[in-house]
Structure formats: C-alpha cells, structure tokens
Amino acid sequence: xxxxxxxxxxxxxxxxxxxxxxxxxxxxxxxxxxxxxxxxxxxxxxxxxxxxxxxxxxxxxxxxxxxxxxxxxxxxxxxxxxxxxxxxxxxxxxxxxxxxxxxxxxxxxxxxxxxxxxxxxxxxxxxxxxxxxxxxxxxxxxxxxxxxxxxxxxxxxxxxxxxxxxxxxxxxxxxxxxxxxxxxxxxxxxxxxxxxxxxxxxxxxxxxxxxxxxxxxxxxxxxxxxxxxxxxxxxxxxxxxxxxxxxxxxxxxxxxxxxxxxxxxxxxxxxxxxxxxxxxxxxxxxxxxxxxxxxxxxxxxxxxxxxxxxxxxxxxxxxxxxxxxxxxxxxxxxxxxxxxxxxxxxxxxxxxxxxxxxxxxxxxxxxxxxxxxxxxxxxxxxxxxxxxxx
Amino acid sequence: xxxxxxxxxxxxxxxxxxxxxxxxxxxxxxxxxxxxxxxxxxxxxxxxxxxxxxxxxxxxxxxxxxxxxxxxxxxxxxxxxxxxxxxxxxxxxxxxxxxxxxxxxxxxxxxxxxxxxxxxxxxxxxxxxxxxxxxxxxxxxxxxxxxxxxxxxxxxxxxxxxxxxxxxxxxxxxxxxxxxxxxxxxxxxxxxxxxxxxxxxxxxxxxxxxxxxxxxxxxxxxxxxxxxxxxxxxxxxxxxxxxxxxxxxxxxxxxxxxxxxxxxxxxxxxxxxxxxxxxxxxxxxxxxxxxxxxxxxxxxxxxxxxxxxxxxxxxxxxxxxxxxxxxxxxxxxxxxxxxxxxxxxxxxxxxxx
Lengths: 390, 353
Hints:
The complex is a heterodimer of chains A (about 400) and B (about 350). Chain A is α/β, with parallel strands linked by helices. Chain A is about 30% helix and about 20% strand. In chain B, the strands form three sheets. In chain B, strands 1, 2, 5, 6, 7, 8, 9, 10, 11, 14 and 15 form an eleven-stranded mixed β-sheet that branches. At the A-B interface, helix 3, helix 4, helix 5, strand 3 and helix 6 of A face helix 4, helix 5, helix 6, strand 6 and helix 7 of B.
C-alpha cells in the first residue's frame, strides 16, 4: 500500500436508539442506559425486543421517502453541519457512499400482498422504490456532484461504504465524501433473522457467556471525509485505514478461524501504518450471536492480545444491519475524540472460549488509534482504523 | 485510472460462453420468447437464460440450494477466471465487485410468500439468506476461493459503472492484484408483471434503441457477465478499460447504452457525436439495469477481434450513423455512454491493447 492523500473526518452524524444526535448518544453511553422494547413500527407476531429510533423521522413534507432515507438524512445533516455545510460550495466535488440492506430490496408487503390477491396491484410502491436508491437519493437531495454508490454487503455495508469513500478520495475522484450507512427497522429482516434462530428474546449481551442472539436495531451513522494536504480547521481525526477480506466459506456463518476478519484487520493496520500497540480500543462488531462473538473475540485476542480494551455498542443500539458499520465508525470516532469508551452494556460474564473481556464500565483511553470491525453474511469482513491527531 | 481486461465470462439468453455471445453479435437480433404473466392480458416478451445454460455439475454441484441469479453469476465469473488463466494460487490477491440493479428479488418475493403463508415465525431461513443482495458474491467467493475484498453495489442506472470504479480504485490502491468485476440480473414473474405495466414492451418484441424517445421501448433481459481486471499488462488482454468523462469525442465507435428502463432517452440524441459510428447491443440480451456490462463485453470482443459488429436493431429516425454491417475494422477506442433517469451521464472507455 502506498501512502497518499490524508483523509480527515470533519463531520459526524448519528441517529440510533441510543440517541438522535451526538450529545444524546454520548449521554446514553455515559450512563450505560439502553431501552429495548417490543416492535412498534409494524405489526408482527414476534415478541423479541428491538431498538427503534425514538423519534418520528417522517415529517409530512418528506412525502414517500423511505424511513431508511430519512434516518440517513438526519445523520447526514448533522455531519454536514459540523463540517461547515461544505455541500453548499459548488466548487467542491462531493461524493456519497452509503451502505444499506433494507433500502435495496423491493420488499413492500402491501404491494406483494395485493399482487398475490388480484395480480394487479398499484405500482406506487415500485415507483417509490425505483426512485429510492439510497446514495443517489442523498446526493440528489443535497445537490452534490460527485460519484455515488450504494453498497449492499449485508451487515458490513456501512463500513465498506466508508472504505470505498476513502479510496475515492485517495484516487482523487472527489474532494469530500459523505460516507456511512443506514437501515430501518423492517419486518422482513426481523422475520429473516428470527428464522435463522439468531434473534434473542432478551436484551442482547455481546460477548457474554450467556449471550443468546442479537436484537434488531435501526439508525444511521455518517462521516464527512475530506482529502486535504493540510489539516482542516478543527479537524482532529483521520480515517487512517480500511481493510476488507472475504472468508470464502459460507453464506451465513463466519469462517471458524476468522480468516477473513484477520486479513481485513491486518490490511487496515498496514494501510494505516498503525502498530498494534497504538490501538487504544476496539469497537467490535459483537452481535451477541454465538458464532459471531466466538470467532470475532478469538481473532481480536490473537491479534491484539487478551487484555485489549474492547466493547460492542450493539448493546445500546441493537444490530442496525447496513447501518451498523457507519454508526459504529461514528461511535469509534466519538470515543477517540472524547477520550473515553462506554461500558459494553449487556456484557456481564466472560466466556472462557472467546478470549477478550469487554469493558464493564466507562473507561478512559490512551493511545492515538482505534479499530472498528464489521462482519457480514456472505463472509465479508471489514476493519476501519481511525486516528486522533494531536 | 485504468486496468487491463484479461478475462471475460458471460451467461445470457443466447446461452453460456463467449462463443455464444460472439455468435449472437454476428447473427444479430432474434425475437425474444413470449410468455403468459399473471395479471397481464397479453404475452410478455423477455430474453431469459435457457435452463440448459445453467447445467454444470462441476461448478454448480456444491451450490444446489443457490438461486438462479447466483448460478448465473458463478458461471460467468468462473468462465472469466478461466479465460484469464487464473488458478487457486491467485485467489488471495483477487477482489470481487458485483453490480446489480434488483439483486435477488425473486428470492425476496419467495421469502414474502413464506411470511404471508406461514406467519412471521415460520419463514424459511434458506430463502432469507438467499434474498440478501450479496448472496451471489458469496457464492462466487466460495466457489473460486476469493479471499480479497468483496463488494456488491446496487443502482438502477449506473451499477456497473460504480462497480468498475471501485475495482479500478482497488487496483490503484494496491488492495489486490486482480479484480473480478461484473453484473448480474434475474427476471422473475413479479418483475415481468411490473415491466409489462411500467415499460413500453414492443408487441413484436423488437425494441428500437435509437428512437431516443421520451417513452422508450425495451424487452427485459437477464444474465451475468464478469471481467478479470489487472493492473499488469499481459499478452492476452482484451482491452484497457477506464472511466471516461462524457462527452469526450475521440472514440471510433460509440455504444449508446440506452436500455429502455430509465425513462426518457431523448438526451442521447444530443450526446451522440455528429457523424460518429454508433451501436447498441442491448437488443441481443435484453434491457437490464446493469446491462452496461454486456455492452462492454461486446466492445471488448470488437477490439480483440478487430470487428465492428452491426447494431442488432439499427433503425433510427434521426439520421444517425448506426452500424448496420458486421465487418473488420481497425478500432482503437470504443466508448460506452450511459444516461441516467435524471440526466446524469457516465462513460466507460475501452482501448485496444
């Protein structure tokens, strides 16, 4: 890998069950508070707890835009505000690279039910869907004129979108990128994950000995990335590296030795020219499923040592699928900026098979770098390295 | 950024393989098949992949539960891999980027069937896992043991252009030595129903891609095409490929990538360089959201074979210089120009090696 343009993080935006903006999120993290609840956004026979965003991102003027798009725009607006509204500068080429899962699927239940019933359903849901490519829609809404791409890599989509945004900037395709991920609470993936037997009927407990599965969440996490040879005003964080690698093993299960995750982390560390002892903490994917946490924990322990400072924020947010990687990149950046990481809420009892012990309480951190990992269906693995610059 | 195209594989309505596709380029347009579609009172034309094209026990044997989209993608990717002369030893340095407009929507609807028929707590886990957009990518990586970075991108107009851009970025960054990049689309009954009601399907099955009208006609298609890209030159390259800046004017042949699926195509008339040689090969394989990949396959074969293939449906009311005859030609550069639903433009350039 060759070092080239430095990519600064100049704006952060996040919307999740932990908070609808950065201050609310930090408050929830500070108090280790979380609020899983039954599904309220749609009718379902499933009684499992989920993490819904505690506000209605559906003002009437937004018309028919999807909930995923609206969640994304809430986070985008926050991030752009911090970045100084750079999208209003017509001289700048600004790209949009976002990950999602739900927004990429034509899974409108009402449309399909009507199709099955009379085979002649109203086509408005299809037209809305065809107008709703997430990244393109965000780009159009902002009026920016750089590249766009919607990444659909399942649960690593958000992290991979940030990685591709990094590559766009280093290749000089644009001056700035709005990157991250978004996904809404939706009946289809809820039923899907339930069918796989990996949804817990209790609040999730990432890396805990007694973990019993994930809780579905929703939200959006957005970074504004800017390529600059000199440090932008107020910028203190750098997106230093990204690595990705595939397990080539199974459609839904991680490789038992985590070979893709290991390669992804190693690639991100090499790319960022970061040494392992510079890493202040790891924000793990940590879904609270038996398989993910076992494989991920072992890989993290092997690479960083069993005493590494680690956490999973899914105890606060649930698993927001295509939004998770973006949200967790924002959480990672916030922790580096604030100088502390929250408790890995839900974790109580160490699992001797895993090898890492996530934090049980809010903890101050030292060290300039942090790593956020994402694993996904399809055997995708991604790692992001963020550095704080003094 | 540019890269060398060192291998290619294709599965389309004319069967599997480069020979079948090249024969299709030489033979020209043939009528699509017409089928009955629920809720539609007339036969619906479509270019679908014949079942025999998906019979390959060696490649597909280990993925019996896979959907058609994944099978098409795996076969095309495998053929591209072989065409590039690659083997397992290469796999750790290979990345994969898959483009698709609609992804595995057939499996998505099948999963909805499960919810509606059996309830929220009894849907099929196998169907769900295959309804995820990156299922095809997963099968390709498992089949070819690709261990590098993997992306699936979705867009209704520019999915292949975005996939190609990502692949070129990876090669530029040194993330991998080679990238398999391609596109895959599948047609199912629901989508045929939607097309019959939302798209102007020509009753005779013959689309007119050079009409450049505000309500274009098309016949939907399906298939998969993959390319192996490398930063390194080799003796057997098809072409050098790069992302262009429309509207550059120096190509020997312009592929106007009107697929008939993005609404008005009037903008192509203004962008078509005056007097330039034009073609559009989408009537061979059918209109697809990521159909640009098939146009690029035609362009790559043109450059390698030194042939200017006739545009399969050349009629146009605008007096354009559309290729009407297949004949040898010294082609140095072919550009593929695409307009999106909102007037965005993108261009892919292929140059002779």
